[in-house]
């Protein structure tokens, strides 16, 4: 297959020799791209100025502001496949500025697998090949990987960047556009046709998966576009608290030798070698380093996979390593890092946003699980603080999350991969796997364990708490007792001796039969032996995607995390669709892996709770047919992990007023 561009003409004619192996009938595709006003704070989906459409062996057509809407409606109402790069952005702009009846046509195209996005296609290629490309690469960057030259940096005769210069052509006839502007817009519609044929001809990407990813990413895009807003008074309180804590911890770190004052530096700096030495000692490996601090002990690759040893061979001093060390001083250093991040990133973000909303950018990890960046709203510090500064625009957030989603997706994967139904049937009947493991820890029956927990028995509750890091960590091949101990301490507040954790690990392997079968019979069967190491090729359930080049721990996590990502992403799409079509109130504004947050009027909380829960269950029922999922909701005035649900006398959900967690 080869493509050529006639750059000497005003418009572009696309000539292609089509790949005989392509799953996508390129001659039935329409290339699509729109030029808009520049994106700016408070305007993430700006007005559409003009739209270009392209077909194979035809000149691209460019439509003005007045003419584009009718042409778009006709295209969306046809049976042609629509191909573009980051189409979620264009479709979002049409939602905001196009005729109201266009919304149904957009969702019809999405639901009928007619939206083909070259950006998402390359994401799937990266997953399939084990590459580490950055998500959301631009059209020029992806095109270059396939031998197509696209220049996105051009300027007009006045030195104005073409890419961001279309606003002045709003309602201007196409005949009055300078040649360079017509050519730029036409190319953005034509190139994706060449590109998708080259991508799909590699045999790594299926049309059905492209359609699924397009739906999920559209949900991401519209959630991001609504944005989040801050409460200035709470930001003031958080900043004062952060500065007080940082000053206190900083003094302690200097006394400990972990930090030191340096001339001409405004703030103390970390004493890296001292910290690394303390980490080695805390993990019982103080005698396994040489004079330069390099690790010289066994299992180096395994320790690197766990994040304890860096690629350079030295001990890591990342926050989770410090937190999980069991050393009070190192944990304090981790706390210092967290609060520094709150001050330098979160508060800075909140200040810069001011009265305007701020917007994250969602993406996909190698498991297809969601990522968040610029800012990362999925990774605020666990303790109260930054989240509570984020207020609901309309008065209430309704947060609904899946209860134990990854247990459910693991059970479904076990059914599909091994034909074992024990775990799936138990979850569907309401079985509590943490109580199950807790019963084994105490040596009592499951029924007795459930009764004791319901009665608030401290011993039973502690045992159930100890089960969580086992159930969540060991299915990801977390094997070292020291790692489990740190994970339990940081994530669940469970502090037991390492020797006790080793006993509990052995007990888990002896009693959790479906989970152990998943690891030993299924995950290990996915190993691909290479010359120097073993990697894994892992199918992502409910899709045709295979994640290649995964290490052992990543392979274990990919199956159930990948299915969980598909379930939660599809659920978000259904919620966004219902909201934009007027079938439920509010707008989705938060998405954190398995939780959806909708911003709505307080009086709409019961309806949002009902609809959001219903649609999330619908998504899980479609993608996890053998496991019955459950969801749980709460309504709050400000985003908060610690706030509890409140109910009216008739049992309907009401808004919990979230207090300022750290008033000055």
Assign a percent range to the helix content.
40-55%
Low-confidence stretches: 1-13
The total strand number stands at: 22
SS content category: alpha+beta
The number of helical elements comes to 22
Mean pLDDT figure:
91
CATH fold category name of the largest domain: Nucleotidyltransferase, domain 5
Number of domains: 3
Give the radius of gyration: 27 Å
Highest CATH level, the class of the largest domain: Alpha Beta
Please explain how this structure is put together.
- The chain has 664 residues and is an alpha+beta fold.
- It folds into three domains: 3-205, Nucleotidyltransferase, domain 5; 230-356; 406-545, no CATH class.
- It is 46% helix and 14% strand.
- The protein has 22 helices and 22 strands.
- The protein is globular.
- The N and C termini lie far apart (66 Å).
- Mean pLDDT is 91; it is low at 1-13.
């Amino acid at each position: 297959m080869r493509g050529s561009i006639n750059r000497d003409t005003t418009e572009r004619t696309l000539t292609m020799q089509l790949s005989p192996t392509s799953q996508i009938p390129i001659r039935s595709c329409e290339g699509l791209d729109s030029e808009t006003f520049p994106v700016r704070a408070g305007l993430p989906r700006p007005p559409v100025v003009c739209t270009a459409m392209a077909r194979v062996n035809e000149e691209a057509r460019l439509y003005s502001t007045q003419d584009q809407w009718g042409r778009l409606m006709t295209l969306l109402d046809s049976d042609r496949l629509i191909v573009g790069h980051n189409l979620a952005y264009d479709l979002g702009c049409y939602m905001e500025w196009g005729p109201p009846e266009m919304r149904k046509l957009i969702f019809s195209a999405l639901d009928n697998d007619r939206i083909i996005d070259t950006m998402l296609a390359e994401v799937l290629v990266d997953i399939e090949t084990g590459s580490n490309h950055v998500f959301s690469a631009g059209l020029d960057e992806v095109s270059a990987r396939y031998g197509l030259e696209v220049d996105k940096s051009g300027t007009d005769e006045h030195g104005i960047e073409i890419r961001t210069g279309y606003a002045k052509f709003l309602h201007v006839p196409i005949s009055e556009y300078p040649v360079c502007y017509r050519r730029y817009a036409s190319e953005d519609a034509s190139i994706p046709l060449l590109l998708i044929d080259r991508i799909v001809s590699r045999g790594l990407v299926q049309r059905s998966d492209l359609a699924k990813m397009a739906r999920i990413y559209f949900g991401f895009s519209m959630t991001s576009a609504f944005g989040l807003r801050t409460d200035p008074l709470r930001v003031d309180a958080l900043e004062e608290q952060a500065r007080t804590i940082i000053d206190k911890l900083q003094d302690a770190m200097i006394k400990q030798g972990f930090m030191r004052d340096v001339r001409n530096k405004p703030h103390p700096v970390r004493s890296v070698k001292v910290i690394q030495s303390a980490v080695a000692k805390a993990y019982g490996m103080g005698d396994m380093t040489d004079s330069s601090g390099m690790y010289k002990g066994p299992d180096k690759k395994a320790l690197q996979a766990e994040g304890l040893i860096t690629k350079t061979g030295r001990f890591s001093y990342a926050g989770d390593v410090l937190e999980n060390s069991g050393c009070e001083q190192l944990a304090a250093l981790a706390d210092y890092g967290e609060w520094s991040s709150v001050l330098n990133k979160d508060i800075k973000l909140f200040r810069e946003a001011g009265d305007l909303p701020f917007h994250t950018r969602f993406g996909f990890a190698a498991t297809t699980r969601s990522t968040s960046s610029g800012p990362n709203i999925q990774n605020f510090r666990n303790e109260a603080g930054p989240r509570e500064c984020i207020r609901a625009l309309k008065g209430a957030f309704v947060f609904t999350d899946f209860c134990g989603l990854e247990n459910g997706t693991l059970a479904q994967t076990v059914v599909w991969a091994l034909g074992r139904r024990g775990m799936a049937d138990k979850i569907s009947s309401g079985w509590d796997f943490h109580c199950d493991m807790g019963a084994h820890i105490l040596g009592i029956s499951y029924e007795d364990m459930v009764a004791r927990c319901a009665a608030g028995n401290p011993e039973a509750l502690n045992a159930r708490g100890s089960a969580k890091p086992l159930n969540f960590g060991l299915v990801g091949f977390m094997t070292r007792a020291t790692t489990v101990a740190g994970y339990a301490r940081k994530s669940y507040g469970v502090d037991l001796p390492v020797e006790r954790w080793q006993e509990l690990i052995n007990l888990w392997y002896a009693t959790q039969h479906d989970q152990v079968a998943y690891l030993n019979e299924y995950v290990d069967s996915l190993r691909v032996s290479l010359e120097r190491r073993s990697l894994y090729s892992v199918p992502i359930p409910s899709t045709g995607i295979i994640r290649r080049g995964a290490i052992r721990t990543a392979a274990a996590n990919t199956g159930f995390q990948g299915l969980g990502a598909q379930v939660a992403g599809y659920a978000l799409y259904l919620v966004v669709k219902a909201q934009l079509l007027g079938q439920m109130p509010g707008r989705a504004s938060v998405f954190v892996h398995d939780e959806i947050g909708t911003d709505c009027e307080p009086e709409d909380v019961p309806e949002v709770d009902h609809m959001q829960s219903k649609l999330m269950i619908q998504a899980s029922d479609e993608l996890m047919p053998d496991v019955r999922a459950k969801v749980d909701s709460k309504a709050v005035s400000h985003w908060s992990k610690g706030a509890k649900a409140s109910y009216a006398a008739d049992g309907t959900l009401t808004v919990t007023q979230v207090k300022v967690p750290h008033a000055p």
